[in-house]
Structures are given as C-alpha cells and as structure tokens.
Design goal:
The complex is a heterodimer.
Chain A lengths: L6 E5 L2 E8 L4 E8 L4 E7 L6 E9 L4 E9 L2 H4 L14 E2 L1 E6 L7 E6 L7 E6 L2 E8 L4 E9 L8 E6 L7 E6 L2 E6 L4 E6 L7 E6 L6 E6 L4 E5 L8 E3 L6 E6 L6 E6 L4 E5 L18 H11 L7 E6 L6 E6 L6 E6 L4 E5 L2 H8 L1
Chain B lengths: L1 H7 L18 H14 L4 H5 L20 H11 L2 H95 L2 H17 L4 H27 L4 H13 L4 H27 L8 H26 L4 H30 L5 H14 L1 H6 L5 H40 L10 H25 L12 H4 L1 H28 L10 H29 L11 H36 L14 H20 L12 H18 L8 H14 L13 H21 L5 H18 L6 H17 L9 H10 L1
Helix pairs in contact in B: 1-5, 5-6, 5-7, 6-7, 7-8, 8-9, 8-10, 9-10, 9-11, 10-11, 10-12, 11-14, 12-14, 14-15, 14-17, 15-18, 17-18, 17-19, 18-19, 19-20, 19-23, 20-23, 20-24, 21-24, 21-25, 23-25, 24-25, 24-26
The chains are: A mainly beta, B mainly alpha.
Chain lengths: 359, 766
C-alpha cells in the first residue's frame, strides 16, 4: 500500500475497491457484491485491512430497516498489488459476512465506527438514539454488545454521525444528533460534554483533530464548518463559511492537521488550510537532531507571523452534490471525493503548499 | 497833544514844509498854530520865528499876553467890532479856547512830574535812613534771635521725647481702640529713633515696652487676620499692617494664602453641597454661576490682593500663588466636572453650553492673573472633554434611538394583525424609522452645533474650530452612528439568526431596504448637512461618502441575503419535515397535492407580497406565454420520462447517471446560496432555490415506493405550477424539480410514474 491508495466507496449493493497507482497514474477497480442491501455507511477496520463494516438498508415489504454488519474482503484483494481483471464487474466477488451487529432490539443503524489504533475488536454503532459498543470476538465472527447508552429527551432524537477520538487512549466518542454535538466516555458510556446548537441546522459530520487533543471539527446544513475546543462548549474556535449549501463531510488530514477537507451538496470540495488552530501554528517544528544551519533557517521562519488560515483550493469537478470526502490513509497528500452522480475524484494537495508545509 | 495836533494843522504838514507850502491861503492861522506848538515846547514865538515887531507884551487886550484882561478885551471887542466880526471872533475864540485847554493840561502834567521827581528823591533819602536804622536794630536783635531758635529746637526735641515717652501708652490706647493703622504709623515713626538710641537705658525701656506692645499688636492683627470674619479687603489691610510691622513676608504669604484657602474651601464646600446627592440640586447654569462668582471671584480677589501685597516677593511668591491657584483650581475643576458629569444624561445642550460658556468666560480673568497656574487651559480642557463626552452621549443617544426604532418595528410586526390591514404596514414602518432616525440625527447635530456658536467664548479655540467639527461631529458622531447602525443591522445576520426565529424576517427586509436607501441618498444628504453646519476646515482625513455608502450597501446586501436564507430555511424546514416524517414506501396512491405544498406556495406568495412592499420587481428572463402549463407538460411527459425511464431496468443503472450527467453539462450549475440582488425577483429566486434544493437533498435520503414516487411527482408538478412566476428564470425551477423527481425515481425500487394527465388533473383539482 506504499504507493497505492485504495479507496473504498459504496454504491447500490456494490463495493468498489479502487486502486490508485500514484506513480503511473493508473486506476484499478475491483467490485465486491454486497448482497445484503443498499449501503449507507462504510468503514474499514484499522487493524485488519481486509475487514470492513457497513450500514445498509434492508427493504422488506414496504419497510426499510438499516442494519450493520462486519465483512471480510476476499484475500486476493487485500494485497492491493493484485492485477485486476480487465472487466471487473463481470467477475464481481462477494464479501464474506463475519457478523451482524444485531439490531433487533434497536432500530436503524446510522453509522459504525471502529476504535482507532485498536486491535479491531471494538466497534461502536449509532442506532437511532442509542450508542452501542460492541466487542468483536472469535476473529470478528461474533459481535457482543458490551455496553450502551441512549439519549433521553423529548422528540425523536436520532444520531446522525459519530467519530471515535484517537486521543485519551481512545476512550472518547463524539456524536451528532440534530444540532447538538455530544462527547461520550466509552468506559462508562456517559456523556462528557455537550455542545448545544453547535450548528444552526442539522449537524452532518464531525472529525477529531488527529494531532491536537480536544479539537474537533463539525459541519452541517447551515453551510458552515466549525472548529471546537471541547473544553469550551459555548462557542467555536473558528467558523468557516465557504460552502453555499449543506456540508456533508469534514475530514482532517491524518498527518498535517491544518489541512481540512470539506464536501458539500453545492457540488464543491474545499481544501482549507487552518494553520492557526492546527498543532503546528508556526509551521513544521524541527527535530532536535537537525543540523545547526538548518536551525538558523528555522528560527528565521519561526519569527514570522503565524500563517493565515485560508482556502487552498475549491474543487469543482463534481456536477452534483458531494456526499463523501476522505484522505488517503497511505499518502497524506492525496484525497478523494464522491458525488451523487457516482463520480469519484482523486486530487492531490497543491505541490507548492506541500513543499511549504514540508520545508 | 493829540487834541492839539488835530486842532492845529493837518497831519501831513510839518514845520519844515512851510517855505514851499502855499503861502497866501491863511498865513495868519498857520502862524498861530506854530506859535502854539512853540509855546508848548517853551520857545517864544518871537525867538523861534526871529520876527521883529511882535505885539506889545504889556497890551491887556493881547490874548496871548501875560497881562491880558478879559474885561478890557471884551469891552474893546464890543466897542470896536461890528456884529459879524463879533460873531467871527466868538467862533474863533471858542476854537482857540478848546485848543488852549489841551495845551494847558499838558503843561500842568509836566509840572506835576517835575514835582514828583523831587519827592521821590526825598523818599530815597528817607529810606536810606530807615535802612540804616533797621540794620542797626537787626544787629542789636541778632543774639536774641539765635537764642529763640535754639529754644524752639529744644522744644521740638522735647516734644519728640515726650512722644517717645508717651509711645507705649499711646500704642496701648490705639491697640485698645483698635486703631491699628495709627498704632503701626506711630511704631513706624519711633522705630528708627529707638533703634538708634537703644544704648540709652531709658530709650531701651521704651523700646522694650514698644516691642511688647507691638508684639501684642501683631498678635491682635494676626488674630483678626485669622478670624477672617471680615472680608478680603480688611484682610489685605491686616497684611499690609503686618508687613509694615516688619513681620516676615514669607510667613505672611503662607498665612494669607492659608486664610484665603480657608475661605475658598468654604466656597468649594458650598459648591459640593450643591452637588449633593439630593435631587433638587440647582441646574448646571446656576451651579457654574455660583462657582464663578463664589470661588473664581474669590480666587481673583485673592490673586489681586496677593499680587498687590506681595509684589516684592518676586518669582518665588508668584510661583507660590500659582501653586495655590493650581491646587484649588484643580479641586474646583473636579467639582465642576462632577457636576457636569451629572448633566451627561440630559438631552438639552443649550443650558450646558451656556453653563460651560460662563465657566470658561469666568476663568479667563484669573487666567490672565495667574497665567502660570494654567487655569484657563485647564478650563478649556474641561470644556473640550465635556464636548467630547457630549458627542459620545449623542452617539449613544442616536444608537439608542435606532434600537428604539427597531423595538418599535418589532412590536409593530409582532402585534396581532387586524384582518385586511396586514399589507401596507412595512412601507410605513420603513418611512417611520427613516424619518425618526433622520430627525434624531438632525436634533443631535443642532444640539452639538451650540458648541460652535459664535457667541460662545470657547468656540474660537482651535479644538472647536477643527477637531471638534471634523473628528468629533463628522467622524465620531455621524460616521460613527452610520457605522454602528450598519453594525447593529449586520449583527442580526450573525448570532441569533441562525436559529431562525429570533429576528423577524420582515425586520431584516426592512433594515436591508433602510441601508440601501442610506446608500443611495441618505448618507450623502446627512454628510452634506453636517459639512455645511460644521465648516470642516482642518487637515484630518475624513471618511469619504463613497466608503460609507459602500459599507451601507454591503450591509444591505448581507441583510437581504440573510433574509433569503431565513425565509428559505422556513420553507425548507416545512419541506424537510414533510419528506422525513412520511413513510414513502407504504404510502397510498396520490389523490391530492399534499397540504404542505400548498402551504409552501402560500408562504412564498406571502413573502412575495412582503418583499414587493419594499423592493422593486426586478428583471425576469423572457418567458413563453402560459409557460406554466406547457413547460410542465413537456417536463412531465417527454423530458422527465425520457430521463428516468431507462432506470426501470436495474441492469443499466449507469445509463441514468450518464444521461443526467450529460444533461447537466448543458445546464448551468445552480448556485444555491448565490448573492442576492436588490429586487424582488432575485430575492424570491433565492428563497425558492434554497427550498427546492432542500427538497432534493431530503428526497435523496429516502426510499420511495411506487406511490411515494407518484406523490413526489404530483407535488413537484404543483410547485411547478405556482412557483415559476416568482423567479427570474423559470428554467431554474424546472431543473430543480426535474432533479427532485429524478432523484425520487432513483430512490425507488419500483419506479412507475404517474400518467402526466392524471398528475395535471390532481393538481388542478387541488
């Protein structure tokens, strides 16, 4: 996976595995059939590259039920360097079901999140107003409900999205329901913080800053992207208003957290440089073992003003609403976006910015 | 002599002329006249003329003879002359007598003088005798005289001595009687002598006594000075006397000032009492009057008296006075400022300006006296500060007025509507707000204009001529207010508006129009008015009208955009709820347009009316006639079906995408929250775009049964029927509604569309 950046996205009943060969600029596609139903959410295990979880709609007799399950890809696709057949769709392979996240007690699964940096044994699913923590046992062939919590309150509360914080020894999960953001402690399954009215309208997505504790980005139907310090829930650290319609996705770059990617139903993908609230507000800090003349060079740079937050680029390749964006887990300068019309666009961070960040 | 000349001959003829003169005319008379002159000068006629055979001097009838006998002469005349000759001789006689009279007087005077000379000579002789005698007497008296002089000297000395000996008792008496001036004069007279003769025991004693008394006197004077019941003039007198007694001037200065301080502090205390917490304090004009006459007047007196009394003290003394004035002045200023601070709340400037005028004017006098103390400068500073504060106050007032207007508007908007009276309110409200703000601005301008009135003493200070007008009034007050107005208006876009309901949308609309009006006309009007009233003439840079207009326009734009967002959100929420809460899989075959769609159309119409009250229509793209029906029929039959028909067969899902992508290539991208223009069509287009986009996104998140899809079809057709008329480009509505139906079809496992004709029938029915 060094050079290749597999991207997985879901389309009715199929999972396409796209291999992007960075060196040769070649895209390979492998199709996996997902016969259980229409996929609404997908997430890959952090520990086992062949394992993924999906939320899918099962339609039965004028009823739609969203379920969640853990699957394993066929072995040969895991490698990534595998040569794909010419016509991938004709040789579609089937996913191997590992286990269902049994939702008979609970209703629709909105999303499934894996414990980041864990051993791929813990998984959290959001079902309507419940937050469920599962233990995957016996090589993930069995999911046992470890603990759960539910939102009390009036009305039909429904979780829309959730993320597992990579900080604090992975004991925190943040969820979004309607306009509210909530933080949960997975050990006690109790609420730690709550940002009421984080957005004017529905919160669509959120993401944790991978390098800076307490920092959280959220986006929603008010066309805004907000950055929060969860220690101060009264007001956001920063607000972006670049999109002209609902923002469906927000993603921090895994390595350089000043790079923030957002996708919106105004058909645009925007890459922003949020230096001032990143973990490197004064640029890249030098390691101790750097040679002295470089140190001098650095000190000059550091004396500069903190860099300005700005929009790096607006990508307008999509013709319809963009519903998913994400960074490559292999190459920090690569990202993909997916729109309603089925178009997947892979982009790179502009070279100039890349060098600016690296040097 | 004059008479003789007149009687004698003509003035031109002199004695020497006779030989040449006419001989025969009256030689006899001429000779007589000569004769008389000669007689006068003591020459006998015979001698002078040297003529022989003159009449016999003894002849008694000779008139000029010494032996003339009038009787004989008359007898002779009577006897000898006939009457005519007698008459002639009488006339002649009278004439002659007349001439003779003068001649005789002169001769007599000459005699008298001669006699007088003699007598004078005799007097001189007598005087010489007397002088001689007198000298002799003087010499005799000399000795005695000297003795008398000596005695007189001794007497004077004795009197002085007596004065000295009596001095203690006199002084005591004076002190007892309170005639301090007298006492000091005595003391002053005796001082030197006593000093000189103090080696003599008796004088010594007197001096000691005097010193004791003087000390007492000084004591009493000081006492009197300290008691201070008397006014400043008596005070001054005391100081004068004490100075004359040789008291140390510096100490007196101190004491004088200390005393003055006491009195002035009393003034200050009474002023402070007027300040007091009790409400019925006198108005500020009265206060400054009191301060002016009481404190400032007192200070003037003190300063004048001090300068008079202690002029000899030189710069050190002046410095002491200046320090004194500075200290008390600063306390006075503190009081005045406290009082003025109480005025800050008031709305009336005229009283304040008059009070400041008095205050300032009053302080110019001591300012001249005490230039070093800088009281006038400090007073000017206070006035400037107050003026600044007033500007700030007026700015606050304007802001408050603006907020008040907004509150009124809110109330008017929130007030329960009387049926049929809903419409025209908004335009009226706008007019009310605009005129109310304008009148407030004008009132504020008029109020601060008082500060620059010609008759006000401080209006010619550089601050009031320059900075006050440009930076204070124009920038601080007017520009500041317009900016703050824009900010206040913009703040409605930011914080609470997110939740939708906090700011009534109508208020946003109204504010937007207000700002736009400001941009087009009001700002330049107000600034022109300001520039005219306050002839701005200094070099400070001022905000140009264009900048301010741009700000106002930006505010108007943001407000209108926000209005679109808010209204769009309201309709979006309706549509969203209607999509999200319905079970689209198990819905029944559509019989009606859903109520929510009717509601959407109603609300949109209401918004159209509302916006129409304040904004012009705007430009639409040219439309085909009766476009609603025909367009939709095309849309629902050929184009729409053509688009999603292939997707019935699940085998070719990519074709749908391909088709829709190709179509999109040829249609413009719809910017949902695009900038709004200042007209009704643009506003409505924005709102409808937002609403339909929401509908689209919501539909995409659901799964539809066959009838669910058909219901969407019906709903969209209904919207199409009614919404096209509101937007600039009806194609936009078509596109979005197309998208909605196409998306619903994609989200439908059993996509069987309804017959277009049925759709039309249902829509027309309901």
């Amino acid at each position: 996976m060094e050079d290749d950046a597999p991207v997985i996205y879901g389309l009715e009943f199929q999972i396409h595995i796209i291999d992007f060969d960075d060196e040769n600029n070649i895209i390979n596609k492998n199709v996996l059939l997902h016969q259980a139903g229409e996929i609404w959410h997908i997430s890959a295990s952090p520990a086992d590259r062949g394992v993924l979880a999906t939320c899918y709609n099962r339609t039965s007799d004028s009823k739609v039920l969203t379920c969640a399950a853990v699957w394993r890809m066929p072995k040969e696709l895991e490698s990534g360097s595998h040569e794909s057949p010419d016509d991938s769709s004709s040789t579609a392979q089937t996913l191997e079901l590992l286990c269902h996240l049994d939702n008979t007690a609970h209703s629709n699964m909105a999303c499934v999140v894996w414990e980041p940096m864990g051993d791929g044994k813990k998984i959290i699913s959001l079902a309507d107003n419940h937050i469920l923590l599962w233990d995957l046992q016996e090589s993930s062939s069995q999911a046992v409900l470890a603990s759960s919590a539910s939102l009390g309150g009036k009305g039909q509360l429904k979780f829309t999205s959730g993320r597992w914080s990579p900080h604090h020894n992975c004991t925190q999960v943040a969820t979004a329901n309607d306009t509210t953001l909530r933080g949960w402690d997975t050990r006690t399954m109790s609420q730690i913080y709550c940002i009421e009215n984080a957005h004017g309208q529905l919160v669509r997505d959120l993401d944790f800053n991978p390098n800076k504790q307490y920092y959280l980005a959220s986006c929603g139907d008010d066309c805004k992207v907000k950055f929060w310090d969860t220690r101060n829930v009264t007001e956001p650290v920063k607000t972006l208003e670049e999109h002209s319609h609902w923002v469906w996705n927000v993603r921090y770059n895994h390595s350089h957290d000043q790079l923030v990617l957002t996708g919106s139903s105004d058909s645009r993908v925007i890459l922003s440089n949020m230096v001032s609230i990143s973990s490197e507000p004064f640029g890249h800090l030098v390691d101790d073992d750097d040679i002295s003349d470089q140190e001098d060079h650095r000190s000059e740079e550091k004396s500069k003003e903190p860099l300005q937050d700005n929009v790096i680029a607006t990508y307008e390749e999509h013709e319809d609403s963009v519903y998913a964006v994400d960074w490559s887990s292999a190459d920090p300068w690569l990202f993909a976006s997916l729109s309603y019309d089925g178009r997947l666009v892979i982009n790179r961070v502009p070279r100039a910015l890349k060098y600016h960040i690296l040097l | 002599m004059a008479a003789a000349a007149a009687a004698g001959s003509s003035p031109g003829s002199r004695p020497g002329d006779s030989p040449e003169g006419p001989e025969g005319e009256a030689p006899e008379r001429r000779r007589k006249a000569h004769g008389m002159l000669k007689l006068y000068y003591g020459l006998s006629e015979g001698e002078a003329a040297g003529r022989p055979a003159g009449p016999d001097p003894l002849d008694p009838t000779d008139l000029n003879g010494a032996h003339f006998d009038p009787e004989v002469y008359l007898d002779k005349l009577r006897r000898e002359c006939p009457l005519a000759q007698l008459m002639d001789s009488e006339t002649d006689m009278v004439r002659r007598i007349r001439a003779l009279d003068a001649t005789y007087t002169i001769r007599k005077m000459k005699n008298d003088f001669r006699k007088m000379e003699d007598e004078m000579d005799r007097l001189a002789t007598n005087m010489a005798v007397i002088t001689d005698f007198s000298a002799r007497i003087s010499a005799t008296l000399q000795d005695r005289h000297e003795r008398i002089t000596k005695l007189a000297g001794v007497h004077a000395l004795l009197r002085k001595l007596q004065f000295l000996f009596e001095l203690p008792s006199r002084l005591t008496k004076c002190v007892e009687l309170g005639a301090y001036g007298q006492a000091v004069r005595y003391q002053g007279r005796a001082q030197a002598v006593l000093q000189q003769y103090q080696h003599l025991p008796s004088f010594r004693a007197i001096q000691d006594d005097c010193q004791v008394i003087t000390a007492r006197l000084a004591q009493q004077l000081r006492q009197r000075f300290r008691e201070g019941g008397s006014g400043a003039p008596e005070q001054a007198e005391c100081v004068e006397l004490l100075l004359a007694l040789g008291e140390p001037a510096e100490e007196l200065c101190e004491e004088f000032l200390a005393h003055a301080r006491g009195r002035l502090e009393e003034e200050l205390r009474s002023l402070e009492a007027e300040l007091g917490p009790s409400p019925p304090a006198p108005d500020v004009l009265e206060f400054t009057d009191h301060g002016g006459s009481g404190f400032v007047g007192g200070l003037c007196q003190v300063a004048a008296a001090y300068q008079e009394l202690f002029a000899a003290q030189g710069p050190a003394g002046a410095e002491r006075l200046a320090a004194f004035a500075r200290e008390l002045g600063s306390r006075y200023f503190a009081l005045v400022e406290r009082r003025l601070a109480q005025e800050q709340g008031g709305g009336d400037n005229s009283l304040l300006v008059r009070a400041l005028d008095r205050f300032h004017r009053r302080l110019r006098a001591p300012g001249a006296l005490l230039a070093a103390a800088g009281l006038a400068e400090a007073a000017t500073e206070i006035v400037e500060r107050v003026a600044r504060e007033r500007l700030g106050h007026h700015l606050q007032g304007l802001r408050a007025a603006f907020l008040g207007c907004l509150t009124d508007v809110r109330q008017a908007l929130a007030a329960p509507r009387v049926a049929g009276k809903e419409g025209p309110g908004l335009a009226e409200l706008l007019a009310n707000v605009a005129s109310s703000i304008l009148s407030h601005i004008k009132a504020s301008l008029a109020a601060v204009h008082l500060f620059t009135a010609k008759e006000v003493s401080f209006s010619n200070k550089p601050y009031f001529r320059g900075e006050f007008c440009s930076q204070g009034v124009r920038e601080g007050l007017i520009v500041g207010f317009i900016r703050s107005m824009c900010q206040t208006a913009q703040s409605f876009c930011d914080s609470p508006g997110e939740k939708g309901g906090a700011t009534p949308p109508a208020l946003l609309l109204l504010l937007s129009r207000l700002c736009l009006d400001y941009e087009t006309a009001t700002i330049s009007y107000i600034l022109t008015l300001t520039d005219e009233q306050f002839l701005v003439q200094d070099q400070f840079p001022v905000t140009p009208v264009s900048t301010l207009c741009a700000e106002a326009r930006e505010t108007a734009r943001r407000l209108l955009t926000h209005y679109v967002k808010v209204q769009g959100l309201v309709i979006s929420q309706m549509l969203r709820k209607s999509v999200e809460t319905r079970d689209w899989l198990s819905t029944l075959e559509p019989r009606n347009v859903r109520a929510v769609m009717k509601r959407v159309v109603e609300d949109t119409t209401a918004i159209d009316v509302q916006v129409g009250l304040l904004y012009e229509e705007g430009v639409r793209k040219a439309q085909s006639s009766d476009s609603s029906k025909r367009t939709f029929s095309v849309y629902s039959s050929s184009r729409q079906q053509g688009r999603y028909a292939p997707s019935y067969t699940p085998s070719a899902p990519m074709d749908t995408n391909l088709l829709s992508n190709i179509q999109k290539l040829f249609s413009e991208r719809i910017d949902v929250f695009s900038p709004v223009e200042f007209n009704k069509v643009s506003v409505l287009t924005g709102i409808i775009k937002i609403s339909l986009k929401t509908l689209l996104e919501c539909v995409r998140l659901r799964t539809f049964g066959r009838f669910g899809l058909q219901q969407v079809q019906v709903d969209c057709h209904f919207l199409q029927l009614y919404l096209w008329r509101f937007v600039a480009d009806e194609e936009l509505v078509h596109l979005l509604l197309d998208e909605v139906v196409a998306s619903a079809a994609l989200r439908c496992p059993d996509p069987v569309p309804m017959e277009p004709s049925v759709v039309e029938v249902i829509c027309e029915r309901g």
